[in-house]
Design goal:
This protein has helices at 8-15, 43-58, 62-74, 79-88, 91-98, 104-112, 142-153, 196-202, and strands at residues 116-118, 121-122, 135-138, 170-173, 178-181. It starts with 7 loop residues before the first helix and ends in a 5-residue tail after the last helix. The protein folds into 2 domains: 8-87 and 192-206, Ribosomal Protein S4 Delta 41, Chain A, domain 1 (Orthogonal Bundle); 90-183, RNA-binding S4 domain (Structural Genomics Hypothetical 15.5 Kd Protein In mrcA-pckA Intergenic Region, Chain A, Roll), CATH 3.10.290.10. A 5-stranded antiparallel beta sheet has the order 2-1-3-5-4. The longest helix is centred in the N-terminal third of the chain and has 16 residues, at 43-58. By secondary structure, it is an alpha+beta fold.
């Protein structure tokens, strides 16, 4: 299954707030064209929705998410927490959490277009796994810095409406267009309300 490129509002209306996908939120008072489902949700449906939240928030394909679940399953510690750490330490997500991109798809575009450096070297792979002490900067070009500045000016970290705190494992020096990764992210600072155990249960037969 390929990466989702359809209407983003449609996904937030069904799954709730997905800040990595879009800043737009579905207003409950607005009537939906799709009538609400009646009856109690099955356990499969609940697990599926949690999995979809994770997938659409981080902008992953089905194959990519399954790959991360398998890696997390082989690591020490809680599979769910390791999975979230793997996803949160992706370069595109780090740029988003720093406020250097307004959404994760926007961050992915910055990386793909070679605007971003990690430790002084251009990295054009959005899934690049950042590590503690990594230094993330932008190219010393007017266009690159203008793109980052535009995102910083409209960052949800500066918007009281969103109340999205910058995680403690990241430091941003906006004047230098530079971000620093201090450590692996703690569970409490993950930028999405998610029940990761249900995601692991969803994939349990495939890992």
């Amino acid at each position: 299954m390929s990466r989702y490129r359809g209407p983003r509002f449609k996904k937030t209306r069904r799954l709730g707030a997905l800040p990595g996908l879009t800043r737009k939120k579905y207003a409950p008072g607005i009537e939906s064209r799709t009538p609400p489902r009646s009856g109690k949700k099955s356990q499969y449906c609940i697990r599926l929705e949690e999995k979809q939240k994770l997938r659409f928030h981080y902008g992953l394909t089905e194959r990519q998410l399954l790959h991360y679940v398998r890696i997390a399953g082989k690591a020490k510690g809680s599979t769910g927490q390791v999975l979230l750490q793997l996803l949160e330490m992706r370069l595109d997500n780090i740029l988003f959490r720093l406020g250097m991109a307004s959404t994760i798809p926007g961050a992915r575009q910055l990386v793909n277009h070679r605007h971003i450096l990690v430790n002084g070297r251009i990295v054009d792979i959005p899934s690049y796994r950042c590590k503690p002490r990594d230094i993330i900067t932008t190219r010393d070009e007017q266009k690159s810095r203008a793109l980052i500045q535009n995102s910083l000016d409209s960052s949800p970290h500066r918007n009281r409406k969103w109340k999205l705190p910058r995680p403690k494992h990241l430091i941003l020096d906006s004047s230098q267009y530079k971000g620093v990764v201090n450590q692996i992210i703690d569970r409490e600072w993950v930028g999405l309300k998610i029940k990761e155990l249900l995601v692991v249960e969803y994939y349990s037969r495939q890992i």
